[in-house]
Amino acid sequence: MKVLLRAAFAASGMLALCLSSNGAAAQDKSLTLCWAAWDPANALVELSKDFTAKSGIAMKFEFVPWTSYADRFLNELNSRGKLCDLIIGDSQWVGGSAENGHYVKLNDFFEKEGISMNDFAPATVVGYSEWPKNSPNYWALPAMGDAVGWTYRKDWFERPELRAEFKTKYGRELDVPKTYDELKQIAEFFQGRMIDGKKVYGASIYTERGSEGITMGVTNVLYDYGFQYDNPKKPYEMKGFVNSKDAAAGLEFYKSLYDCCTPPGSSDGYMAEGLDAFKSGQVALQMNFFAFFPGLYKDPAVGGKRIGFFVNPAGPKGHFAQLGGQGISVVSYSDKKQDALAYIKWFAATDVQKKWWSLGGYSCAKAVLDDPSFPASAPFAQQFLDSMAIVKDFWAEPAYAQLLQAMQRRTHDYVVADKGTAQEALDLLVKDWTSVFEEENKL
Amino acid sequence: MTEASTTSRPGLVEQVIRRHPDPVSVRFRGLSDRTIAWLFISPTIVLLLAINLFPLLWTVYLSFTNYRANRPNAELRGMGTTYYEQILSDPDVWESMQATAHFVIATIAIETVLGFAIAYLIDRKFRGHAFWTTVILIPMMLPPAVVGNFWKFLYQPQNGLFNAIVAPVLGVSPGSFQMLGDVQLAPWSIIIVDVWMWTPYVVLICLAGLRSIPDYLYEAAEVDRASPLRQFWSVTLPMALPFIMLAVLFRGIENFKMFDLVNLLTSGGPGSTTEVASITLKRAAFESWRTGYASALAVILFVTVFGLANIYVKALNRVKQR
């Protein structure tokens, strides 16, 4: 009997051990996805539950605020860290991450799994996946389409007394601006006005100094005024393109908009500050990325019927918008590359992309964007489509951070700190960028 | 009998030997005391060399190369003194050095005067003395990240407490000026926060100095019928001077490296108005990843601080000797 009991105990012990080790193995199977801490990240957490249910792989997330997003994750990649198995990296990182071996090249994987880049919006493929640009070398799957757009206080625009006053003053209706001149008139109209007993201001625009804020703002105007990164016929030749008279006029315009029509204390504002200004009812117009628009539309104070959306206005020399958004990549230092690739395969599926859009993420898949029901699926969906057709991006070179720093400094010096003229700022920018490209042996 | 008594009661020589055991070297045969001492302290020395001296020498080496930490596989080329020449002839770097110098001088001057004055006042015994001393020290105990963030809110032009208090005094509206966004005011906004946070530190050191002054000096001064002002100039200040100078040294070195408050409050802006040397260094090292260039800048900053600190310490020693 004693022998029997001992055997039973031993068997149950073995069983418990096996079960617990199986459980531990299941728990161990996990992936860490790194991204910025913002509204779409919450949608991705929700979406990824389906992946866990399907694959049994638990998803962990490492989200970092935008202001330290580049610092944190580029440090992680440069130190060959294993924190992130998957990373949704900024569009400008693709060059450096490809050349420095941080991302896994996905061409073979795409081919094997039947994932075609023709199934994604062309601007997002060039912007988020390709390096070198316009070559079929893919380092990411377009994950989150985004561009700079505008929100406005539709309820204020609809007030008869304001509409009448605006028409008397400017000789046109108080409507969504089509050009930057119209936008400035509207911003001036609202600047310092009392609405519902509260002083309001014209516009919230990007002016942040520390990371990429003012560059992401000012480029929207510069592109429309004729700024180009380099000579289209001779790459890296910047003189006369970056610092053309038209580009200087664009920079002057941005400064005039900052000086005339922003709320006090707007000298260092980016996405979060813009949201704060708009949500607290301080401003009539807000420049911000489309990624925030679903959240703003749901906002109880300023959302719903009170908010409207419009595409970045045109300028005298063109009509563009600054590209935002990111692609999802597999980190080459990860020990779980196969699982990470399985996530990308799952994410690329059409039904997942449709759900991604419905949860508040911006799908880049044509199956979603070209669906006839898409423009009516959200009050900002048509504007998103229109914006993605006119996007331009900052340099995506391996030395992008140096190029960005120079632009942050020169534009902030002129726009916010009143230092020198617009022409001088852009001349200095050409000098800075030239020295970066010389150091990179590209000039 | 003799043997038995020897084993049961040790003789004087044996007792002395037991009280003074053999030298360590006798027990670890073949090793001298000096060698054993080295064996004991060598782990510490190795550790110190590894975490202090090696990084310093490595930084100096890197400053002469084109190394980039984000491109470890790229060809490493010797750059000679190119980066040093670039840095020393770059107007942007000089601008950041000027911003650093302004910040260091202004904060040290204000913190020293204020710190000593407060220490002089709370050195007197009064009701609630211990409580108020603790209250004064609170800002220094807060993490700089917290201080930076809450001052950012305080400086908010529309609803910040700072503008709300200062504006009526100046007879202007609170929204009419912005501490962090104005080129003239932004450096002062950082100085104010640093003074608020670190004056207590100066208070603490000065207080230690004031309390170390022997009472008999004041008694002798009173016998000589010295006025309180005369006592201050002839006894208090000279006796507390080495402590004040020590506080200046510590604050000077700290503020030369100032990063956290500036980064949180202005990120070096507006434009590059408050871009102090440490911000420039961080951008070069960890944003641009120009490791070689950043190493050269770090070496220049190190030599500057080290040189100035050495001159200062010599002056401090001279004051102490007087």
Automatic annotation (TrEMBL), chain B:
<dbReference type="InterPro" id="IPR000515">
    <property type="entry name" value="MetI-like"/>
</dbReference>
<dbReference type="InterPro" id="IPR052730">
    <property type="entry name" value="Sugar_ABC_transporter"/>
</dbReference>
<feature type="transmembrane region" description="Helical">
    <location>
        <begin position="293"/>
        <end position="313"/>
    </location>
</feature>
<feature type="transmembrane region" description="Helical">
    <location>
        <begin position="129"/>
        <end position="151"/>
    </location>
</feature>
<feature type="transmembrane region" description="Helical">
    <location>
        <begin position="36"/>
        <end position="58"/>
    </location>
</feature>
<comment type="similarity">
    <text>Belongs to the binding-protein-dependent transport system permease family.</text>
</comment>
<dbReference type="InterPro" id="IPR035906">
    <property type="entry name" value="MetI-like_sf"/>
</dbReference>
<keyword id="KW-0812">Transmembrane</keyword>
<protein>
    <submittedName>
        <fullName>Carbohydrate ABC transporter permease</fullName>
    </submittedName>
</protein>
<feature type="transmembrane region" description="Helical">
    <location>
        <begin position="185"/>
        <end position="210"/>
    </location>
</feature>
<dbReference type="Pfam" id="PF00528">
    <property type="entry name" value="BPD_transp_1"/>
</dbReference>
<keyword id="KW-0472">Membrane</keyword>
<feature type="transmembrane region" description="Helical">
    <location>
        <begin position="99"/>
        <end position="122"/>
    </location>
</feature>
<feature type="domain" description="ABC transmembrane type-1">
    <location>
        <begin position="97"/>
        <end position="312"/>
    </location>
</feature>
<dbReference type="InterPro" id="IPR035277">
    <property type="entry name" value="MalF_N"/>
</dbReference>
<feature type="transmembrane region" description="Helical">
    <location>
        <begin position="231"/>
        <end position="253"/>
    </location>
</feature>
<keyword id="KW-0813">Transport</keyword>
<keyword id="KW-1133">Transmembrane helix</keyword>
